[in-house]
Protein: GDSL esterase/lipase
Organism: Pisum sativum
Amino acid sequence: MRHPSTFSTYFLLLLLVPINAKPKVPAIFTFGDSSLDVGNNDNFITLAKANYRPYGRDYENQIPTGRFCNGKLTIDYASETLGFSSPQPPYVTLSIKGDNLLNGACFASAGSGLDDATAQQYNTISMNEQLEFFKDYQRELMKIAGKPKALSIISDGIYFIGSGSCDFLLNYYINPVRYNAYTPYQYSDILVQSYSDFIQNLYALGARKIGVTTILPIGCLPAAITIFGFRSINKCVTKLNNVAIYFNQKLNSTTLNLRKKLPGVNLVVLDTNQLSYNIVNNPSQYGFIEARRSCCGTGLIEVSLLCNQNSIGTCVNASQYVFWDSFHPTDAFNKIMAAHLVSQASPILS
Ligand SMILES: *[C@@H]1O[C@H](CO)[C@@H](O)[C@H](O)[C@H]1NC(C)=O
Ligand SMILES: *[C@@H]1O[C@H](CO)[C@@H](O)[C@H](O)[C@H]1NC(C)=O
């Protein structure tokens, strides 16, 4: 393990300041895919798992928690910034009960999407099942905290949702049943409709402060360049990025309509796409050296089971890389993204 420099010691001290203060919001709830999953899939028989090395090698105590990252996710950094001293618990890990529930929980599941068929293919938790777990959570919370306190945790807590990328990369583009039935734009419309239903269901369950993240420029993920692009050119796949932009715009306009439709809702769309695109295309400006290959293995294709202790070529210093595996960014990237998300989230933090 690297010894902390004077600078990082200083930085850790700075982080301790908000940790001792009261968090800015009572609870954080997350729903969606691997961008937010802190370990729910550890409990399922699925290929979409990351609870083994080298995942987590830069996490506290080098523990592979199930996060698809070498270290922390964006949500981990964001919740630290908001004043939480411990990371969000994965709800499905049954040992997490009692007082741990008071600060919210993570319901996200890697490999899931807005199309329930995406999660079904990989035996992960679909968005609708995540809502069922949330109902179960609410019953537990009422028992522990009593009804009035539980209701205020639910209505004052903030909700982050991130989903959609898996529907394209792990379903639509590799599944002839979907690919032959719809154009990617028609499929985007279906996904955004499902997103809208999800948000309305969450609202009906008491959520009021909701931040929805846009999807990344999926054509820039190392796996996408390998599978759908041309490695010799080594550029992002424009066709996929255009679909992501379309999806995000549609999501944005849909949320504007939901704001009018749902009284008292505080709903914001949080950009991840533009910043990621800038980082991938100007890595050195953000302190990165490599943005086309990921750290794990050859960096062209390894993700999940293919990214393991025996993968040959895994980089030494993941901080120099934008991507940790061929689908997921590094801890260093997530830290930059968290600051960007928190700054946009101010409407739901008051
Ligand atoms: C959503 O649309 C609004 C209004 O057109 C725009 O100002 C905003 O930047 C968009 N947000 C995102 C995250 O794209
Ligand atoms: C890893 O890379 C980062 C970014 O280039 C650098 O700041 C850091 O010192 C490196 N760490 C080690 C142990 O070489």
Remarks:
- Strands lie at 28-32, 104-106, 158-162, 209-213, 266-270.
- The CA atoms of residues 142 and 150 lie 5 Å apart.
- The two ends are 39 Å apart (CA to CA).
